[in-house]
Design brief:
The chain has 577 residues and is of the alpha/beta class. It has 16 helices and ten strands. A six-stranded mixed β-sheet has the order 6-7-8-3-9-10, with helices on both faces. A four-stranded antiparallel β-sheet has the order 2-1-4-5, with helices on one face. Helix 14 links the parallel strand 7 and strand 8. The longest helix is centred in the middle third of the chain and has 55 residues.
Length: 577
Amino acid sequence: MMRISDGVVAEPVRRRLRRCFGLVAAAALVEGGCFVGLVPLLGALLERRFAAAGWLAAALVGLAAVAVAAGRSASARQRAVTSAIVASLQHRLAEQVVRLPLGWFGPARTDALTRLTNEAARMLAAALNGVVAVNIRAVTLSAVVWLTLVVVDPVTGAVATAGLALLVVLFFAAARLLRGATAAENAATERINGELLEFARQQSVLRAYGRAGQANAELTAALTRVRSAAAAYFRGAIIGSVAFQLGTAVFLSSVLITALLRAATIGVVSALTVIVLAALLVDATAALGRTGSVIWAAERTIAEIAEIIETPVLPEPGTSATTDDASIVFRDVVFGYAPGDPVLDGVSFEVPQGSVCAVVGPSGSGKTTLARLAARFRDVDSGSITLGGADIRELRAADLMARVSMVFQDVFLFDATIRENVLLARPDATQAQLAEVARLARVDEIVDRLPHGWDTGVGEVGSALSGGERQRISFARALLKDADVVLLDEATSALDAENAAAIRSATTALTRDRTVLVIAHRLETVRTADRIVFLEHGRVAETGTHTELLALGGRYASFWHEQERAQRWTIGAGIPV
């Protein structure tokens, strides 16, 4: 049977499911009683006891009516409980997703989450509404018929018992084979999905540098792996199915031959009864073989959902600690994405309330990780980050997010209108407030240019807009939130002059009178920062103002002069001007 772990579906729904399956089993027992009633009915007919046969036939008709009514009632309850289970599962999944650390959400996991949410309803509806009920009926009916067979003729019953044991062994062997092949095929399919997406994204670069052929070869190799995994799956399915069918044929043949050999001993009536019961037993057990693959697929889907539901969440208190102000303090922060490989190693510095602190350094030094830890995308391995004197782990997630505005390099916009994307920060904002943040972030220029203005759709993840336009909208959203702490991953280095100017203007408006932690990529934008922290190899190498660090002549000064030389470089001559 299909296993559903306790954490996936709530206990009240599980009780309803058990009662529903109990009704299915009861209906199957009544149905089995009808088949058992065939034994005396056949005897009465063959012995010409027609009056007794009439009464037996009437009793069987009444029993069959009860079985049909019970079966219909079970089906109706089954559909209702299936809907409840799917709703319960999706509710649990939604509850868990909003509690998972933000660092959990990567592209692969997001795709898997979407797939599982969509698959769950289809898989469970197919499995619970049809397959599981069919199997419960098959097992119950098989048990009743088998017991009757043993009572009618113990010798033939013993042969049937051996045949059933063979079918059980074949069933579980096929299940093991198919489950392994299913896992391999799913892994290969997920991998090729990622490679296909990457292949599509790389087309412009691959073609520009004449490497499309190599990429095609790599993609072909990946597709070959998928075909091999699919072939292994179908081999497993075919081998399992054929083995079960052969076992069924051996089972039926053995029982029939035994019944014929026993006819002289047990009588013609009993022999005919044994043959009928054997056919019914084979039909009931064959249902298990026909539905196994659906159950195994549903089990895997539920197991994946259970894995998400059982993913540890970031703990949070019932009530947030009291904060004194909007200052941020990093104290001996150590963090790594993998054990024994810290990205940040003993980072300590302070960002006083109302000040601007810029974090600079080479790529891979841990700058963006630092900002994301401040927003509690993940928890530090050791050390602490405090907001207003309170460890952010002592604040409820909702309370922490209410205090913080985030603008990162990877801008995400919903597939909605410009207005809806900005109002996400404060749905009850007035038109005057909306117009003001639009002016400050220079979103008004975008709105005025577009035919539908504020009601223009931005497309999936903002694809209908340029990168600079998406960033302006994200700044307007952060301005409208009006939080007292701003985490800003500056991203003007790849923008054209107009958008870069707009983003600098929006940055000035966003950071005014707020506590700001900015990840700086272009050093000229942090000249006026109250404090600059230079990170290198996950450690704080230098701290100070722009003037102090230039005078120090250390790593920051070297970085500054390198950027100055880069800005004076020209393409034509390749020399400074």
